[in-house]
Design brief:
heterodimer; A: alpha/beta; Rossmann fold; six-stranded mixed β-sheet; globular; B: mainly alpha; ABC transporter involved in vitamin B12 uptake, BtuC; two-stranded antiparallel sheet; membrane (chain B); transmembrane (chain B); ABC transporter permease (chain B); ABC_transp_permease (chain B); transmembrane helix (chain B)
Amino acid sequence: MSPRFEATGLSRRFGRVQALDNADFDVDAGEVVALIGDNGAGKSTLVKALTGNLDLDAGEVRFEGEPVHFATPQDASRLGIEVVHQDLALAPHLDAAQNMFLGREVMRPGVLGHLGFMDTPQMRRRSAQAFTELGSAVRSVVVPVGSMSGGQKQTVAIARAVAWADKVLFLDEPTAALGVVQTRNVLDTIKKVRDRGIAVVLISHSMPHVLEVADRVQVLRLGRRVATYRGADTSVEELVGAMTGALDPKEGAA
Amino acid sequence: MSTSTGAGTGTSTAPTASTIETTAAHGNLTDRVKAMQSVWILGVLVVIVAVFGVMSPSTFLTTGNLTNIAQNVSIWAVLAVGMTFVIITSGIDLSVGSVLVVSSVVSAKVMESMGDSGWTTALVGLALAVVVGIFWGALNGFLVARAKVPPLIVTLGTLSVALGVAQILTGGLDIRSAPQVLQDNIGYGRLAGIPAITIIALVVVVLGGIMLHRTRFGRYTYAIGSNETSARRVGINVDRKLVQIYALSGFLAGIAGILSLAQYGTTTIAGQSLTNLNVIAAVVIGGTSIFGGQGSMFGSMVGLFIPAVLQSGFVIVGVSPYWQTVAVGSILITAVYVDQHRRAAAVRGG
């Protein structure tokens, strides 16, 4: 059976910089794949290319075995692929429920809905439910997101992505700005989402976090995948070695 | 750490659905009003009214005077509805006064040429004013959204161009004719003692408020002003929304053009040069942030009444009305200063 989401031979050049150089990637349903690499290794470029945020010079992306092309992020969303960007992309003046449903508002039934009226109670209820399921620290879905703590904002962004990601969830540095407890919550959330059968792709610089949640770790260096390890069988030393090129690992080890 | 321990930690810190606030404290109208930026400025308005009321109860607090004040703000109120939408997107529309003028000029010219003073002529005039208004508004929106020229520059440009067009069409001379039905029914008409023009403005304001606060269109208006990138990422067609929002502002300037014609019986080519700034000041005093993402229709209306009440009050208590502009300017700066601090406090979690 083909993987949930895979890419082969992705290339993208920015001027003289070869950001992606024949890179491969794959993630399966109900699996957490960590994507690691030094700064400039091409992690963010890869995620952008896989989620319709960036055009490719070459390469093929396949979703559940079928070749796909995403011209916009919405094309990816339509297939159940969501991204939590590093900058979270929340509207600070809107509340958590409004952010959760932004662009996907639930409308009132009948004529009122056609006139543009929204079903606010339903959106609030469903948002509250989503936060509860994630065990989040968000206490209110009706205060502006801008007044929340970093961790709460992070939760809102993740909850929004999780709510719409039926198939694949990308998380770009989700724990970078968080404290210990909030990081804990995010890692637990990743496991819960995986256990629902969703493919999770985690980009992180934190090796302990990667080792805790990742089923597989794919290492990028100079725009290509240089190694894949099973999360259970690898170590911080091995990962760092592969990232920096100190080790010369064999592609496809796992 | 094992998964089960992790999940345990998650559950212990997790609020249940019932403890996540979904309506509490924001459910009823009073609390919602209290939470708004504009509430303290409403206090300012109440104080101003109270002071004049105490100083001159027999003249200031009369139905006649209050009606008069309401009538004076009616046309600006129509413009302020559109301006509130535009400013919430973090834009600005300096062209409203000129668009009002050019709409009323085109409309008056055609109505004049039709010769009679009946409702048919008036309705043709209204339709024309609205079409002209939408044209200029959509042009603003197109230049802002597609050509990526900053709104301040775009609308400063169309302010000049639209006024110039109005002057070319008329040779700079006001057209002193408006259908009698318009003047009689709209300009001087009253319903239950309330000026017709005020009732029309009230309807526009209420519809605008519902649109802003209750519909998806309004939600996207806030989203664009709050974080345009995030609005684009979730698939909102930001460019099209911006064109619609500026077109709405132009549409309302067209309506205001007809109302102005009805009220004064003449076009006001030279009389609208400060209209844009007065409307912007009112909207901003009312708590709408020029940085976008924040504001309310209610606040804009409060912001509109402060200058009008001061004007009327100063005249009645015998203070030179020139002090009104001094007071309004000071309130504008104070209002923004206070809002900034409240906002900073909110971000700090205070």
